[in-house]
Amino acid sequence: MTTPDNPRSPTRIPFPTVDEIARHCHQSTEPETVHIEVHLPGPLNPDRFRTAFAEALHHHPRILMREAPRPWYRRRYEWELTPTPDIEVVTFPPSTKDALEHARTRSLTRTPPLTTSPPIRLEAVPLPPPGTGTALILTVNHTALDGPACLRILATAAERYGGEDNTPTAPPTRPPDAPEPPENTPSVWTPPARVAPGTPDRSPGGNGLLLTELPVPHRPKGSPYTVNDQLMVTTALMIAHWNREHGEHLRPLRITMPVDDRPRGTDMPIGNGTRLVEVTFAPTELTPTPAEMADLLHRTANRTRTLKALQRPQLGHGATLLTAPVVPVAWRATLTRGLRRAAAPWTSTTLLSNIGRIPYTLDFGAPAGRAQAVWFSAPARMPRGFTVTTASTAGKLHVALRWSRTLLGPGDGARLRDLFEHYLHTTEQTEEHPA
User: Global pTM?
Assistant: First the structure.
């Protein structure tokens, strides 16, 4: 903000392409929030934690932003950077039996407004019995920020709070062999399968959520595929099985996969920094025998490696053209929403966002301790209506299944979790690693 002592106008940054497209397609009935949940074994001191988190926000000032007011004829949305937060970001709700469940529901149904800096909220929920663990529920407006950027903020807060080193570990390396030319896959012009409707939740609007914890799947040493490829195959087979159970014919599956090439140090760019690629599976690949599983994993590894190597804008060249500031942004918003509705049949089947191994210890020092579990969940707005988000710590895979309540209900989520666990196990049962 400007003040008599600081008459200069606040710094403004035009919305990048990803932010603008998300802003155009905002829907209050299905909020675009990223939910991050971190479990600590001990309690946090409220005043000390608020101070540490405020220091982290100032260390990464790009997060201190709000949408700038604009006349209707302006050609761009703009972020307005602020010197301090507009509100208190951190709250400590009372310790009650349902406190954690209520905090999760708020994270899925209440979007932090873009007009208030920063567009995030953090609830530190005491876990029973009192004085033991703490769950940090971070809610992010996805128009402004993504999960990895906010995890970086949280890692800085942990370092400021506990004084422990949270330097990121080096990412695991993929085997060096080059990808082969990709084999024939279904055309991108073929409408992919949708997740078959289940028994929708009666609750109004928003998303449903199920969190689970599984062992990180084993893979043979030196395998050309990664855990991410195993998760990709698992997700495809889970949905194919679910659709067969609900009378759907096998159709090509297309799974959106975010790719994030940003560094994880304190200089990590803050914002929406991932680019999206789409991995396609032919119907004939969706019923593999145990003997065929290794080949499916190898083909999937080749596809994901090839897609990651492509140099393209975050949302493709079409989105770049759509956000070119040649006409008022309000006109582009109307066009974007119309195109989104028209393209709904070609929207990917689901989104698999694998954060991978958490690169930070997230150690808050005694007595709060080091993070024992970290979950993320990506928004599940229709027409996809279902997303899978995974992360791993200490050999444990933290899986979040999130769905639109107009498509699925809690019982459906439980069934999909069981299918996910089953097919994740089958990716370990290859000829290279028999059961």
Answer: 0.93
